[in-house]
Design a protein that fits this description.
- The protein is an alpha/beta fold.
- The chain has three domains: 2-200, NAD(P)-binding Rossmann-like Domain (Rossmann fold, 3-Layer(aba) Sandwich), CATH 3.40.50; 210-291, N-(1-d-carboxylethyl)-l-norvaline Dehydrogenase, domain 2, CATH 1.10.1040.10; 298-430, Rossmann fold, CATH 3.40.50.
- It is built from 18 helices and 14 strands.
- It has helices spanning 10-21, 33-40, 51-60, 70-76, 97-107, 127-138, 159-164, 176-193, 202-233, 237-245, 266-279, 285-309, 335-345, 358-364, 374-378, 391-394, 398-404, 419-424, and strands at 2-6, 25-29, 64-67, 79-82, 115-119, 145-149, 169-172, 197-200, 316-320, 349-353, 369-370, 383-386, 409-412, 428-430.
- Strands 3-2-1-4-5-6 form a six-stranded parallel sheet, sandwiched between helices. A six-stranded parallel sheet has the order 11-10-9-12-13-14.
- Strand 13, helix 18 (419-424) and strand 14 form a beta-alpha-beta unit.
- The protein starts with a strand and ends with a strand.
- The mean pLDDT is 96.
- Bound molecules: uridine-5'-diphosphate-xylopyranose (UDX) (2 copies).
- Residues 152-156, 213, 216, 220, 254-256, 258, 260-263, 265-266, 324-325 line the site of one uridine-5'-diphosphate-xylopyranose.
């Protein structure tokens, strides 16, 4: 099938590449020329395990191309995916200006052939209806199209795997023709993985995505609330949460306490859902509480550092991890950045290391030192602050780290080490909820 992907970001690029891998002919369109230049050289603009190899493979096979021109891509495509970003406005509402812009461009391009336009970006309920209205308004009377909601559930760091082995495929459609087209598109995946397919109304599909992300964010904030309780009451949050998670109705995933959730999705999506509740006249205090606990996770962690180190002015602090989670170079809404900004404001000298995210961080965070490796970040530091649970941090030579530091103190925002082991090794060690 001929596919156009508009917006080659984390979601669009992964979706387009995986659809090419399934045998479709895909053009990814993006207005960022620097990104396109990289892609055309077979380089992925983002660090995402397995993605670059798949891009090269499908480019070489002639199934995957990149362009800055919407018109020719849309003209030849049977299915068009809208994957542009939907950033939050100041009031939390999703800013849909890029979605509208793309819808207008599609309207100016579609001809008489039937097209399915798919909302892949996470958007508030009823957005697909607006996209449809927009295409009708600017489409010179062309009605031979359907708008579908097909939310993406991929996680950064495991994006390719999540796309190729999905837990479920959600298709929100109002027409049988569109349903059949999207089922045909995913047939190779459905046959291979036996992933459950949920064919639902367009509005339901839009709400499934916001609902799923809000629930996951709720689990994380709940875990952080338990961690706070444990710190005040003298219990161990990992023991408590592990046992809670063994209840099959609850499940163990997304119950890790730490510095709270960051990234480009959860903070933005729960803010948008909160706004949706407000617009619908419903109580949104649950979402307020999730957000408050998430902010408090970072605040409490900073208070711990200040209490232990006392005066921060002039002290060198090593920071391990800048990405909002491991296996990505993405620093959008990363708790690490908030922590560094705050420590910097108090006069601390920061020496940071991340295995993948330093190039992105250098643009956002000038004025701090970047280390070549974790040991260099530890050398001469009065404390090490762990902000991301990269696997390689778990295997550090802690004896070596201890010798390199001025005072062997570790603030572990992701609980990657065991308090007892660390104490034995001679560290002053502070985890979260332990
Ligand atoms: C996406 C979705 O859009 C978002 O709603 C979802 O919740 C998370 O995933 P993401 O892929 O992470 O966002 O965004 P980003 O990496 O910013 O990619 C968007 C791409 O669209 C960028 O490459 C940008 O250059 C491109 N773009 C944006 C266009 O080509 N045209 C535009 O008008 C706007
Ligand atoms: C999320 C959703 O998981 C995915 O389904 C959706 O499509 C996009 O948004 P992503 O933001 O890429 O994916 O990463 P995710 O693994 O969900 O982590 C989000 C944040 O929560 C990270 O900052 C992570 O460190 C944090 N987290 C996650 C916790 O603090 N504790 C946990 O138990 C799990």
């Amino acid at each position: 099938m001929k596919i156009a992907i508009i917006g080659a970001g984390y979601v669009g690029l992964t979706t387009g590449t995986c659809l090419a891998e399934l045998g479709h002919e895909v053009i990814c369109v993006d207005n960022n020329l620097e990104k396109l230049e990289k892609l055309n050289r077979g380089k992925s603009p983002i660090f995402e395990p397995g993605l670059e190899e798949l891009i090269i493979k499908n480019q070489t096979a002639g199934r995957l191309t990149f362009s800055d021109k919407i018109k020719p891509a849309v003209e030849q495509a049977e299915v068009i995916f809208i994957c542009v970003n939907t950033p939050p406005k100041d009031d939390g509402h999703a800013d849909l200006k890029y979605v509208e812009q793309v819808a207008r461009e599609i309207a100016g391009t579609i001809n008489g052939d039937y097209k399915v336009i798919v909302d892949k970006s996470t958007v508030p309920v009823k957005t697909a209806e607006k996209v449809k209205e927009t295409i009708l308004r600017y489409g010179a009377g062309k009605t031979n199209f359907d708008v579908v909601s097909n939310p993406e559930f991929l996680k950064e760091g495991t994006a390719v795997k999540d796309t190729m082995e999905p837990d479920r495929i959600v298709i929100g459609v109002d027409s049988e023709k569109a349903r059949d087209k999207i089922l045909e598109l995913y047939r190779p995946l459905i046959e291979k993985t036996k992933a459950p397919i949920k064919v639902v109304s367009v509005r339901s599909a839009e709400l499934i995505k916001h609902g799923a992300n809000t629930f996951l964010a709720t689990k994380i904030s709940f875990a952080n609330l338990i961690a706070q309780t444990c710190e005040e009451a003298g219990a161990d949050a990992l023991e408590v949460l592990e046992a809670i998670g063994l209840d099959e109705r609850i499940g163990a995933q997304f119950l890790k306490p730490g510095l709270g959730f960051g990234g480009s999705c959860f903070p933005k999506d729960i803010a948008a859902y909160k706004k949706t509740l407000e617009i619908l006249g419903l109580d949104n205090s649950l979402i307020h509480a999730i957000e408050r606990i998430n902010l408090e996770a970072v605040r409490r962690f900073l208070r711990k550092i200040e209490k232990e180190l006392w005066v921060l002015d002039g002290k060198q602090i090593g920071v391990l991890g800048l990405a909002f989670k491991p296996d990505t170079d993405d620093i959008r809404n990363s708790p690490a950045l908030r922590i560094i900004e705050s420590l910097k404001k108090d006069g601390a000298k920061i020496k940071a290391f991340d295995p993948q995210a330093m190039n992105n961080a250098k643009k956002e965070l000038p004025g701090i030192e970047y280390a070549e490796n974790p040991y260099e970040a530890a050398a001469g530091s009065e404390a090490l602050v762990i902000c991301t649970d990269w696997r390689e941090f778990k295997n550090l030579d802690l004896e070596r780290i201890k010798k390199l530091m001025v005072t062997p103190t570790i603030f572990d925002g992701r609980n990657i080490f065991e308090p007892k082991v660390m104490a034995k090794l001679g560290f002053r060690y502070f985890g979260v909820g332990r």
